[in-house]
């Protein structure tokens, strides 16, 4: 059995198709005709462009907007003047073949990217390698090799790039296993959007599996089993059926209210990265958008989005939500999210550095452009503006001052702006959590960002694999802070929601309702499972569970209590 990182849930049982590592025979050859060699290089670039445009079109046609964005970023490499002239210069000066010049150039950039401390740049290395492989395929004597798939299979490979995926006949693919990648890698994102099970980061899996071996992947636990015995296969078949039954059952909740057995209605909102995630949010019945992470508009590109471009994106979301609330968060750049266009200075501790609102307050022009786009879009729906990474009242006041100035400026210019746009903050820094009572006097709402609140409370970098076992939402300190925020927000009569991953984890639903939370925002795919928990819950059960859990002293005890289904259901805890 192999253990990797669970990237997309579900169970697949199927023969493996092992895709070999991409290796090109890169001989260095001396060429005579420099002009002809450069022409050959440009023809390969053009062929790659046509192929990638095809990927973009296909992704758009299937509404795979995220994949389309990735391919658009790939296209930028093909137009990069520095990269192209480096290859051309090498061909001219050293009289070498195009393949060799390209590979040397790409390795030069890959080296720089690989040394970066920044996850964003390291991920770009995969993109560059991917694009270079396409060009090399077109330069190869026998032309591109595309895998032929005739039977259902699970793809096992070292790394699966978005363009590899686009070349696969996906109707036969039942799941993915890769050696490289994390939960937010492209393979993981694509597998989730295709709703196919996937396990990534499974070290040394390719030499241990042969095409045709029967394998099982458990996308929930991150397990891969190779040639399992018949009893194990039978056990997993049953689990697979149960998973599919459960999925179908959850679908039947689509039109139903998120109401506890006592009739308390809970608001279920969706987290989105852009308009492309709206169809799922609407299909699963979201009551609104609780977090629109606008930084996705800024990533994977070399220029900043203009006011008009941003206005169109915000307007689309507001209009499509038809009057339901839409919380749009101003950009949270820095930390693990970076942008080439900004040329950010490397920092020792980017998560403790110039991130979120700190960055915006130092880059007023960029902040103002976004605020202008937001206020202009405000007339198209029920907009709420949220600031990320707020750690003090001074920061909040400075951000509000910018917002007010922008608003006044737009009105003076004759733009129409909504009469009331509530302004709130993410509570994701412990200092903000501790002074929620003070914030409650000035903000319209707060949303608890548990992803960061956990890392800052426990001093555990959320991206660092070495200490990931310490990153625990079950830690009593985290739960006490959450309770404090909910209590103080309620006392100050402001709206409180939660938009970190904890909100979409059904193990916490009962506890959070017991703590007084009435609004949850999560990835659209989590909405129905949380709704199921809510509908099975009595408020007395939730309150008793919260009381019990808050009296426990360790994360392990709390995890055990919350993972015990009996404990969470309404058959115990004083129902
Ligand atoms: C959070 O920190 O919980 C959050 C929702 O923000 P992000 O994951 O974008 O940092
Ligand atoms: Mg955050």
From TrEMBL:
<dbReference type="InterPro" id="IPR008731">
    <property type="entry name" value="PTS_EIN"/>
</dbReference>
<feature type="binding site">
    <location>
        <position position="452"/>
    </location>
    <ligand>
        <name>Mg(2+)</name>
    </ligand>
</feature>
<comment type="similarity">
    <text>Belongs to the PEP-utilizing enzyme family.</text>
</comment>
<keyword id="KW-0418">Kinase</keyword>
<feature type="binding site">
    <location>
        <begin position="451"/>
        <end position="452"/>
    </location>
    <ligand>
        <name>phosphoenolpyruvate</name>
    </ligand>
</feature>
<keyword id="KW-0813">Transport</keyword>
<dbReference type="GO" id="GO:0005737">
    <property type="term" value="C:cytoplasm"/>
</dbReference>
<dbReference type="GO" id="GO:0009401">
    <property type="term" value="P:phosphoenolpyruvate-dependent sugar phosphotransferase system"/>
</dbReference>
<dbReference type="InterPro" id="IPR036637">
    <property type="entry name" value="Phosphohistidine_dom_sf"/>
</dbReference>
<protein>
    <recommendedName>
        <fullName>Phosphoenolpyruvate-protein phosphotransferase</fullName>
        <ecNumber>2.7.3.9</ecNumber>
    </recommendedName>
</protein>
<dbReference type="InterPro" id="IPR023151">
    <property type="entry name" value="PEP_util_CS"/>
</dbReference>
<dbReference type="InterPro" id="IPR015813">
    <property type="entry name" value="Pyrv/PenolPyrv_kinase-like_dom"/>
</dbReference>
<dbReference type="GO" id="GO:0016301">
    <property type="term" value="F:kinase activity"/>
</dbReference>
<feature type="binding site">
    <location>
        <position position="462"/>
    </location>
    <ligand>
        <name>phosphoenolpyruvate</name>
    </ligand>
</feature>
<dbReference type="GO" id="GO:0046872">
    <property type="term" value="F:metal ion binding"/>
</dbReference>
<feature type="domain" description="Phosphotransferase system enzyme I N-terminal">
    <location>
        <begin position="3"/>
        <end position="124"/>
    </location>
</feature>
<dbReference type="Pfam" id="PF02896">
    <property type="entry name" value="PEP-utilizers_C"/>
</dbReference>
<dbReference type="InterPro" id="IPR036618">
    <property type="entry name" value="PtsI_HPr-bd_sf"/>
</dbReference>
<feature type="binding site">
    <location>
        <position position="293"/>
    </location>
    <ligand>
        <name>phosphoenolpyruvate</name>
    </ligand>
</feature>
<dbReference type="GO" id="GO:0008965">
    <property type="term" value="F:phosphoenolpyruvate-protein phosphotransferase activity"/>
</dbReference>
<comment type="function">
    <text>General (non sugar-specific) component of the phosphoenolpyruvate-dependent sugar phosphotransferase system (sugar PTS). This major carbohydrate active-transport system catalyzes the phosphorylation of incoming sugar substrates concomitantly with their translocation across the cell membrane. Enzyme I transfers the phosphoryl group from phosphoenolpyruvate (PEP) to the phosphoryl carrier protein (HPr).</text>
</comment>
<keyword id="KW-0963">Cytoplasm</keyword>
<keyword id="KW-0598">Phosphotransferase system</keyword>
<dbReference type="InterPro" id="IPR024692">
    <property type="entry name" value="PTS_EI"/>
</dbReference>
<dbReference type="InterPro" id="IPR018274">
    <property type="entry name" value="PEP_util_AS"/>
</dbReference>
<dbReference type="InterPro" id="IPR008279">
    <property type="entry name" value="PEP-util_enz_mobile_dom"/>
</dbReference>
<dbReference type="Pfam" id="PF00391">
    <property type="entry name" value="PEP-utilizers"/>
</dbReference>
<feature type="domain" description="PEP-utilising enzyme mobile">
    <location>
        <begin position="149"/>
        <end position="222"/>
    </location>
</feature>
<feature type="binding site">
    <location>
        <position position="329"/>
    </location>
    <ligand>
        <name>phosphoenolpyruvate</name>
    </ligand>
</feature>
<dbReference type="InterPro" id="IPR006318">
    <property type="entry name" value="PTS_EI-like"/>
</dbReference>
<dbReference type="InterPro" id="IPR000121">
    <property type="entry name" value="PEP_util_C"/>
</dbReference>
<dbReference type="InterPro" id="IPR040442">
    <property type="entry name" value="Pyrv_kinase-like_dom_sf"/>
</dbReference>
<feature type="domain" description="PEP-utilising enzyme C-terminal">
    <location>
        <begin position="251"/>
        <end position="537"/>
    </location>
</feature>
<dbReference type="Pfam" id="PF05524">
    <property type="entry name" value="PEP-utilisers_N"/>
</dbReference>
<keyword id="KW-0762">Sugar transport</keyword>
<feature type="active site" description="Proton donor">
    <location>
        <position position="499"/>
    </location>
</feature>
<dbReference type="InterPro" id="IPR050499">
    <property type="entry name" value="PEP-utilizing_PTS_enzyme"/>
</dbReference>
<keyword id="KW-0479">Metal-binding</keyword>
<keyword id="KW-0460">Magnesium</keyword>
<feature type="active site" description="Tele-phosphohistidine intermediate">
    <location>
        <position position="186"/>
    </location>
</feature>
<keyword id="KW-0808">Transferase</keyword>
<feature type="binding site">
    <location>
        <position position="428"/>
    </location>
    <ligand>
        <name>Mg(2+)</name>
    </ligand>
</feature>
């Amino acid at each position: 059995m192999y253990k990797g990182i669970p990237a997309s849930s579900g169970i697949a049982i199927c023969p493996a198709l092992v895709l070999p590592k991409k290796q090109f025979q890169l001989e260095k050859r001396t060429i005579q005709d420099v002009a002809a060699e450069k022409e050959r290089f440009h023809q390969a670039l053009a062929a790659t462009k046509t192929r990638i445009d095809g990927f973009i079109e296909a992704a758009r046609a299937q509404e795979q907007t995220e994949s389309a964005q990735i391919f658009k970023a790939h296209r930028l490499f093909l137009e990069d003047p520095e990269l192209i002239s480096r290859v051309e210069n090498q061909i001219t000066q050293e009289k070498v073949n195009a393949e060799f010049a390209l590979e040397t150039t790409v390795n030069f950039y890959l080296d720089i990217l690989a040394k970066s401390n920044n996850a964003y740049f390291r991920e770009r290395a995969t993109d560059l390698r991917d694009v270079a492989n396409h060009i090399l395929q077109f330069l190869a004597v026998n032309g591109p090799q595309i895998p032929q798939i005739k039977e259902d299979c699970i793809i096992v490979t070292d790394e699966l790039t978005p363009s590899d995926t686009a070349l696969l006949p996906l109707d036969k693919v039942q799941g993915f296993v890769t050696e490289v990648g994390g939960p937010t890698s492209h393979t993981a994102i694509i597998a989730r959007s295709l709703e196919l099970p996937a396990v990534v980061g499974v070290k040394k899996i390719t030499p241990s599996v042969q095409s045709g071996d029967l394998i099982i992947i458990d996308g929930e636990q991150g397990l891969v089993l190779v040639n399992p015995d018949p009893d194990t296969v039978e056990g997993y078949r049953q689990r697979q059926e149960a998973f599919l039954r459960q999925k179908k059952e959850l679908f039947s909740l689509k039109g139903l209210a998120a109401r506890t057995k006592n009739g308390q209605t809970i608001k279920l909102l969706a987290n989105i990265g852009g308009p492309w995630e709206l169809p799922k949010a609407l299909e699963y019945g979201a009551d609104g958008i609780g977090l629109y992470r606008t930084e996705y508009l800024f990533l994977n590109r070399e220029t900043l989005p203009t006011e008009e471009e941003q206005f169109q994106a915000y307007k689309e979301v507001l209009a499509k939500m038809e009057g339901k609330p839409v919380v749009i968060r101003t950009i949270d750049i820095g930390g693990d999210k970076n942008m080439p266009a900004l040329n950010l200075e490397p920092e020792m501790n980017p998560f403790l550095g110039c991130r979120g609102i700190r960055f915006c307050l130092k880059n007023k022009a960029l902040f103002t452009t976004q605020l202008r786009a937001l206020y202009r879009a405000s007339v198209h729906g029920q907009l709420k503006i949220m600031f990320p990474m707020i750690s003090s009242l001074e920061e909040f006041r400075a951000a509000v001052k910018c917002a007010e100035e922008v608003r006044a400026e737009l009105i003076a210019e004759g733009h129409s702006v909504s009469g009331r746009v509530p302004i709130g903050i993410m509570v994701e820094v412990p200092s903000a959590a501790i002074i929620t009572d003070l914030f409650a006097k000035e903000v319209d709402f707060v949303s608890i960002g548990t992803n960061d609140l956990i890392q800052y409370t426990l001093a555990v970098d959320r991206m660092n694999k070495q200490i990931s076992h310490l990153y625990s939402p079950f830690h009593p300190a985290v739960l006490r802070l959450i309770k404090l925020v909910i209590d103080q927000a309620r006392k100050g009569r402001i709206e409180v929601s939660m938009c970190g991953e904890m909100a979409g984890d059904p193990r916490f639903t009962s506890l959070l309702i017991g703590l007084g939370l009435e609004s949850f925002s999560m990835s659209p795919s989590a909405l129905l499972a949380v709704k199921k928990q809510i509908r099975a819950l009595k408020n007395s059960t939730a309150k008793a569970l919260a009381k019990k859990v808050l009296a426990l002293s360790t994360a392990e005890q709390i995890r055990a209590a919350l993972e015990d289904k009996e404990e969470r259901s309404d058959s115990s805890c004083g129902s």
